[in-house]
Design goal:
By secondary structure, the protein is α+β, with helices and mostly antiparallel strands. The protein has helices at 4-35, 40-77, 80-90, 98-104, and strands at 163-165, 168-175, 200-202, 206-208, 214-217, 225-227, 235-240, 246-250, 256-262, 264-265, 273-277, 280-284, 290-292, 309-313, 316-320, 326-332, 334-335, 343-351, 361-369, 381-383, 391-396, 402-406, 411-417, 419-420, 427-434, 444-451, 457-459, 463-470, 473-478, 483-486, 502-503, 511-517. The strands form nine sheets. The chain has a four-stranded antiparallel beta sheet with strand order 1-2-32-31, with no helix packed on it. Strands 6-7-8-9 form a four-stranded antiparallel beta sheet, with no helix packed on it.
C-alpha cells in the first residue's frame, strides 16, 4: 500500500487536473458563446473576469476538500498521537491563508504531531500534539542501566497550557528565585517552554522574554516560520510554516542566518549542528557550511562534545571530528558523549523489550575511554553516566544499585541507590528503598542528601521524590503530592511546603511550574 505522503500527493494532482479541466470547459462552452453576443472589448472583460472567478471558486473548494482528506487519512493511518490531533482539528475553522499555502507550496508529508525535537527523550504527558513535527532520526535505545532513570521534571522542553480536562484548568508560568510568578495565566491552547539564552517559546510560533514581551512572531516573518527548538549558541531551529525544511534563526537579528533547506537539523553544540542534507548526514557551521560525515555513516550522529561526535557505521560506534575523519574508529556497541575528557562506551547486544526502545536492555558491560580511545578508569560496569564535577554514577557488576566513583575508579558512594543525581557542593541527592520495622507491608523510600567525602546521609522527611540540584535549589515532591523547592540544607526555599502540580529545575534564574484549579 502506498504511503500517506504519496496518497496526498496524488489527491492534490488530481484536484489540480480537475480544476484545470473545469476552467477550460467553462471558458469554451459557457463564457465564450455569451461573450460572442457583444463586441470584443466586452468579450475580453467578461472572459477574463469569468475565468478569474471560476478559478478562485474551484481552488477554494478544492483546497478545503484536500485539507479535510489530509486530516481524514491521517486520522486513519497515522500514529496514535497524530490520529488524536487530526480528529481534534478535523472540524476546526479553516485558516484563511490556506489558499496561498496550497497553491504556491508543493505537497509535503506534514502531518499533525509534536513540533519539538524529541532528541530521544520522553515528552511530558501534557505535551501539545498539534502543529508540525521534526522527523525523528534513529536513536540508541535507552534502558534503566545506561543512565539513571529521568524523573518527570527532568525534561528539557516541557510544553503545557490551557484546559487539560473538562473540569480542571491549570495555569503555567515562570517563577524567579523569590517565587514571584511572571505569568498570571496561560490561555487555553497555548504553551510555554523553559528559558534559554534569555528567551522562551510560547505558542503559537513566538519567542518571548521572561517578562512576557514578544520579540519574535514566526507567523509575521517572511517567509512564515515555525520554531522547533530553543536558542543554543545564538541559534534556534526553525522550519518553514508548511514544509518540512529546516534552518536556523539568529538570536540577535531574529532573521534566518541559515536557510531552511535541510531535512533535519539539531541544536548547535561547540559551533556545530547535526544536519541531514539531500539524504546525507553531516554538520553545519555557524556560517551555513555543510560538512558531510565520512562515507558509511547512515544514522544520525550525536552532538559534538569536546571536539568529537559519536557516530555509527556498520552497526558500530566510534568518534569523528566534524569535517574530518574518524579519530576513534567504530568498534563499540554503545558510545556516549565526552565529558571532562572521558566518555562511556560499551560492548554487548541490545535486548528489545515489549515496552519499546525506552525500556530496552543492554546485555554487556561499559567502561570509560579518553580521546585516544584508551580505557583509563579501572573497572567494568553494568550501567554508567557521564562524569560531572569529577564524579560519575555507575552500576557495578557486583552492586545492587547506583554508586559514585571518581576519575581513578575509587568508590565514593556505595552502589546501593535506586536513584542518584549529580553532586552539588558536596551534596548528592538520592532515593533508595528502606526497610522499616514499623512498615511490615514492604519497603519505603529513603530520600535525602549523601554528603561527600564522608558518605553520611542526611534524610529528608515527608518527601515522595527528589531531583537534581539546579542553581542552588533542588526540586522535590512533598507527601501531599505537590512539588516544591529545597535549599542545600534541606529546608523549604519558599513559604509554602508544596504548591505546584509540576515543577522543573531552575535555569537562567527562572523555573517553569504548573498549578491546577478544579
Amino acid at each position: 500500500m502506498p504511503g500517506l505522503p504519496t496518497i496526498l500527493t496524488g489527491i492534490k494532482v488530481l484536484l489540480i487536473i480537475i480544476g484545470t479541466g473545469l476552467l477550460w470547459g467553462l471558458g469554451n462552452f459557457v463564457i465564450h458563446p455569451l461573450a460572442s453576443l457583444f463586441d470584443r472589448s466586452i468579450q475580453g472583460f467578461i472572459l477574463g473576469n469569468g475565468l478569474l472567478l471560476s478559478g478562485a471558486f474551484v481552488l477554494y473548494f478544492g483546497g478545503q476538500l484536500y485539507e479535510r482528506l489530509e486530516l481524514l487519512l491521517t486520522a486513519r493511518f497515522g500514529t496514535p498521537a497524530e490520529m488524536m490531533a487530526a480528529w481534534r482539528c478535523l472540524w476546526s475553522k479553516v485558516d484563511t491563508a490556506w489558499l496561498l499555502k496550497w497553491v504556491w507550496n508543493p505537497p509535503t508529508s506534514r502531518r499533525p504531531g509534536p513540533p519539538w525535537l524529541n532528541e530521544g527523550k520522553p515528552l511530558s504527558p501534557e505535551t501539545c500534539s498539534s502543529g508540525g513535527h521534526m522527523p525523528r532520526s534513529p536513536e540508541l535505545p535507552r534502558h534503566p542501566l545506561l543512565v539513571p532513570p529521568e524523573p518527570e521534571f527532568g525534561l528539557l522542553q516541557p510544553r503545557w497550557g490551557g484546559k487539560c480536562y473538562e473540569d480542571e484548568v491549570f495555569h503555567v508560568f515562570l517563577i524567579n528565585h523569590q517565587s514571584t510568578p511572571l505569568f498570571a495565566e496561560i490561555s487555553d491552547g497555548e504553551s510555554l517552554s523553559e528559558v534559554s539564552e534569555g528567551l522562551c517559546f510560547r505558542s503559537p510560533a513566538r519567542f518571548i522574554t521572561p517578562s512576557g514581551k514578544v520579540v519574535f512572531d514566526g507567523r509575521r516573518h517572511h517567509p512564515p516560520l515555525e520554531p522547533v527548538g530553543l536558542f543554543y549558541e545564538g541559534c534556534a531551529q526553525v522550519k518553514l510554516w508548511n514544509r518540512d525544511l529546516y534552518g536556523f534563526l539568529g538570536r540577535d537579528s531574529f532573521q534566518l542566518i541559515i536557510p531552511c533547506e535541510f531535512e533535519f537539523v539539531g541544536r548547535f553544540s561547540e559551533g556545530f549542528a547535526v544536519a541531514l542534507h539531500q539524504g546525507r548526514w553531516g554538520f553545519l557551521t555557524r556560517n551555513g557550511t555543510f560538512l558531510p560525515c565520512p562515507k558509511g555513516v547512515q544514522d544520525r550522529p550525536r552532538d559534538v562534545h569536546e571536539g568529537l561526535a559519536a557516530a555509527k557505521r556498520n552497526q558500530h560506534w566510534g568518534y569523528l571530528v566534524p569535517g574530518s575523519d574518524w579519530q576513534i574508529p567504530p568498534r563499540f556497541d554503545y558510545a556516549g558523549d565526552f565529558s571532562e575528557g572521558l566518555a562511556p562506551v560499551g560492548k554487548g547486544t541490545w535486548i528489545e523489550s515489549k515496552f519499546g526502545e525506552d525500556q530496552a536492555q543492554f546485555n554487556g558491560e561499559f567502561w570509560y575511554i579518553d580521546h585516544q580511545g584508551e580505557a583509563v578508569v579501572p573497572g567494568r560496569f553494568l550501567g554508567v553516566s557521564p562524569f560531572e564535577g569529577g564524579y560519575a554514577r555507575v552500576w557495578p557488576a557486583d552492586g545492587s544499585g547506583w554508586g559514585l566513583i571518581n576519575r581513578k575508579g575509587i568508590v565514593v558512594l556505595p552502589p546501593c541507590y535506586d536513584k542518584l543525581f549529580p553532586a552539588y557542593d558536596s551534596r548528592v541527592p538520592f532515593q533508595r528503598k528502606l526497610h522499616r520495622p514499623d512498615q511490615p507491608k514492604g519497603p519505603s523510600e529513603a530520600i535525602g542528601f549523601a554528603l561527600l567525602p564522608s558518605g553520611e546521609e542526611q534524610l529528608l522527611d515527608d518527601l515522595w521524590e527528589i531531583g537534581p540540584f539546579s542553581e542552588g535549589l533542588v526540586v522535590a515532591r512533598h507527601r501531599n503530592g505537590k512539588w516544591t523547592y529545597l535549599t542545600e540544607e534541606g529546608t523549604f526555599a519558599f513559604r509554602s511546603e508544596g504548591q505546584f502540580e509540576t515543577a522543573y529545575p531552575f535555569r537562567e534564574g527562572y523555573a517553569l511550574v504548573r498549578t491546577s484549579h478544579l
